[in-house]
Amino acid sequence: MSYDHTEPMSVASTRTRDGTQTDHTCDRSDIERSTGTRMDNMNGRPHGPWTILETTEAYRDPWLHVKKDDVIRPDGQPGTHSVVTIKPGICVLAWQGDEVFLTEEFHYAVGRVTIEAVSGGREGDEPAVDCAQRELLEELGIRAAEWTELSTVDPFTASVVSPTVLFHATELTFHESSPEGTEQIQCVRMSAREAYEAVCSGKITHTPSCIVILQHWINQLNNQSERGQ
């Protein structure tokens, strides 16, 4: 299933003798005939099988920006494609022994309270691990002596750019948290199995959180297997 939301560039109407109006999408040949310009000769830059003719910024704030591209689609049709770029982020699962430490917080976009691993956006050129350490301390008041960078994931790929670096953190010490004014965070402690089951049942739905929890659960199973348990 594709979530691309590319739209045709224009629609033309044809009215017959009996007054019936028929709408049809202007295709490549329609535009070439009306403009007298071959689209192969139009200025543009390749983007995979697409060609981007022009980019317009639609919106920007400190956290994200939205652009609209006028494009030639892979099928040769003209259209538009919008892309949302969100600042790069991190997601970190803190664990100690058999317990993992998660957040419980109301999230504005989905309009409900969710359980997640600690996550946040990187500031400027801030290294991912520095951001993860900062967010873990701010949100849960936790410092970790041992850090493992796992991978970088793209939670969305069709219309959103939001690379997220994943971490596991352990050897924990506990301090005072200092969440931002927009955050009302409760710490949730559960076993690794409970977290795994919460992902499988749909209780935890935040994609990067699901990945770090499943990776931790797999590591636990592999360690038990190596010890012959």
Task: Offer a few descriptive terms.
229 residues; alpha+beta; Nucleoside Triphosphate Pyrophosphohydrolase; 2 domains; 7-stranded mixed sheet; 6-stranded mixed sheet; 4 helices; 15 strands
Overview of the structural elements:
By secondary structure, this protein is of the alpha+beta class. It folds into two domains: 7-86, no CATH class; 89-226, Nucleoside Triphosphate Pyrophosphohydrolase. It has four helices and 15 strands. The protein has helices at 28-35, 128-140, 192-201, 207-226; strands spanning 7-8, 11-15, 21-25, 45-47, 50-60, 64-72, 78-86, 89-96, 99-107, 112-116, 118-121, 142-153, 160-161, 164-174, 186-191. The longest helix is centred in the C-terminal third of the chain and has 20 residues, at 207-226. It starts with 6 loop residues before the first strand and ends with a helix.
The CATH homologous superfamily name of the largest domain equals Nucleoside Triphosphate Pyrophosphohydrolase
Helix content: 10-25%
Report how far the terminal alpha carbons are from each other.
41 Å
| Total tally of structural domains | 2
